[in-house]
Amino acid sequence: MTLFFVADMHFGSPYRSYAKPRGFATTGAMNAAIAEAWRSRVTEEDTVWILGDVGDLDSLAPLPGTKHLIFGNDDTPRAAFRDSGLFASHAMSHVLETGWGSILLIHIPKAAKRSDLPVLHGHTHAAPDEPDARFVSVSVDKTGWGPISLEEVVERFKARAAGC
């Protein structure tokens, strides 16, 4: 089993809001690229932490892996996500214990109240990373359109800490 992280898919969202700025010809093309990247990386035995802004649940449902949701600002109404049966867990934030150490999972980086943990987040899309090197974004805009593994996340944290 591999642990993966992703955020900001915005499946099915209005073309001008997400697909066009991301360089896709249509919302369908964006959805397909994200689903293809997901399927090429994740198996049914894997776990995926989604750090907010899923979009259309019907697009997420057939994708492999056990899914956990950290709510994003666009994941509304929350009851629809909680009641969908798609997620093994859902929360506003979560401290994940890994072999590398504890990581705070959250959607909006500015909402991170703890200063003692590395912060894995979404929300920022293609914007530059937070100035604080403890923050790493897993927005699909920064991950090749799909989830990335814990190992890649750790490498990104290390690179940020080293000033790369």
From TrEMBL:
Family in the record: Belongs to the metallophosphoesterase superfamily. YfcE family.
The protein's name: Metallophosphoesterase family protein
Transmembrane segments: none
Organism of this sequence: Sphingomonas kyungheensis
Residues annotated as domain Calcineurin-like phosphoesterase: 1-132
